[in-house]
Write a structure and sequence with these properties.
Helix content is about 40%, strand content about 20%. It has helices at about 10-25, 35-45, 55-70, 85-95, 110-120, 150-165, 190-200, 215-225, 240-245, 255-265, 280, 290-295, 305-315, 325-335, 355-360, 380-385, 400-410, and strands spanning about 5, 25-30, 50, 80, 100-105, 105, 130-135, 140-145, 175-180, 210-215, 235, 275, 295-300, 320-325, 340-345, 370-375, 390-395. The strands form 4 sheets. Strands 2-1-3-4-5 form a 5-stranded parallel beta sheet, with helices on both faces. Helix 6 packs parallel to helix 7 (about 190-200). The chain is globular, with a radius of gyration of 23 Å. The protein starts with a strand and ends with a helix. The relative contact order is 0.09.
């Protein structure tokens, strides 16, 4: 049996890795602190060490040098995960047996591809197309699941949710589980139960504070007929759900409520350990320190001034942009290129932004879409979100604001 030591990992990173590796029949040992790690490494002689870099880079180098100078441990490969560091320092790590260095948050499937390669094992992976996003505003946590139910992502959700609640000290969390894109049947029953159980696994989340937004009859019937989910409420209207969770007395209308709770970001988010978006979702790996080198953005707007302004703004960070001044051109271009982000106006002649959102939803596209429009009508806002838009910005905005919101969206923060 293969043996792996996990060193200094955060609770989410540690428990998630441990669960997955144990399922794959890999023996897992946990070490806290470099002294404990070195002792266990010498006694167990593991096939791999996974090290979560939380202290200084100098402390890491001291540990690696000690390992390198020990004849029994020098050959043991290491995968490290931590904050963004200079490429020159990454090269130094390679000298001491670090095979991979992942900048957090890590894409789960890329990590396990590397682990499997080192251990010479083939890990089983659910490849069901699935978009899972989680963010919060105040104590309201939004979880969106679209396209399908992927068991790897559902397992990750349990830990991601707990990490968010703990790191950001969310008291009395209220959850909106948005599943309007899912058409489930009885064959999805066990996966749906896994999703709901993982949401409810955190002791701070009470059944009565979980609202499920779904049009699916099977989903609604399973929840209403299952004693474990007593108190969960299902609904088909976003405004209705928000009204049931938020004191609306401080808002003049539902449009203000939606704008404040959904469209306006909450406090700065802690990115966490692992991403809920995988490499397999897009086939594109994005490095935080070279974000502009790999970003390709589609901008759709019938106003040429807006197109050029946004293009110049994104060029300042090295991103490439394709400009479309009508929906017809975009639909044609979309099928020819792979985009990391779409910035979309709503009201355009011919094919509108709503039409584009509808087509992308029907094609099961997982590309994040940010609406940038002048309209503040609540019907337009709700319709855009219901059709899959991840963020709604009202014109005009400063260029730096648009860039910041785009980067947040690409990093899974909505």
């Amino acid at each position: 049996m293969k043996n792996v030591i996990i060193v200094d990992a955060s609770p989410l990173f540690r428990e998630f890795l441990k669960d997955k590796l144990s399922t794959e029949k890999v023996s897992v040992s946990i070490a806290q602190g470099k002294r404990d790690a070195f002792t266990k490494m010498i006694s167990l002689l593991p096939d791999l060490v996974i090290l979560d870099v939380q202290n200084s880079f100098e402390d890491l180098l001291e540990f690696l040098e000690k390992k390198y100078n020990d004849p029994n441990a020098s050959h043991i490969p290491i995968i490290a995960a931590g904050p963004l560091v200079e490429r020159t320092r990454i090269a130094i790590l390679a000298q001491f047996g670090v095979i991979k260095y992942f900048t957090k948050p890590i894409k789960f499937d890329v990590l396990f591809e590397s682990i499997g390669h080192i251990l010479k094992l083939s890990f089983s992976m659910d490849v069901t197309p699935c978009v899972l996003d989680i963010h919060h505003n105040g104590n309201i946590i939004f979880i969106e699941v679209a396209q399908g139910l992927n068991r790897e992502k559902l397992a990750l959700l349990k830990y991601k949710l707990s990490e968010m609640i703990e790191n950001e000290t969310i008291e009395n969390p209220k959850v909106i589980l948005m599943m309007t894109n899912l058409d489930l049947t009885f064959v999805d029953g066990s996966n749906l139960e896994q999703l709901l159980d993982n949401v409810l696994s955190n002791p701070k989340i009470q059944n009565k504070n979980v609202k499920v937004l779904s049009f699916n009859t099977f989903t609604r019937d399973l929840i209403s007929g299952h004693p474990r989910y007593s108190g969960l409420e299902t609904a088909t209207n976003l405004a209705q759900v928000l009204n049931s969770l938020v004191d609306s007395s401080s808002f003049s209308n539902i449009s203000d409520l939606i704008t404040d709770r959904i469209l306006t970001p909450g406090d700065e988010q802690i990115p966490g350990s692992i991403e809920t978006r995988f490499y397999s979702d897009s086939g594109v790996i994005q490095d935080d320190d070279s974000l502009g080198d790999v970003l390709r953005i589609a901008i759709v707007d019938d106003d040429m001034v807006i197109l050029r302004l946004l293009e110049n703004s994104f060029k300042s960070i090295g991103a490439s942009c394709d400009l479309y001044n009508n929906g017809t051109e975009f639909i044609t271009g979309f099928n020819k290129h792979k985009y990391d982000l779409v910035i979309l106006d709503i009201f355009m002649p011919g094919i509108s932004g709503f039409d584009i959102l509808q087509r992308l939803q029907e094609s099961d596209s997982s590309i994040p879409i940010m609406v940038y429009s002048q309209t503040t009508q609540k019907e337009a806002v709700v319709q855009a979100l219901s059709l899959g838009a991840k963020r709604y910005l009202v014109k005009p905005q400063k260029p730096e604001v648009i860039i910041q919101k785009s980067i947040e969206l690409l990093h899974g923060k909505i």
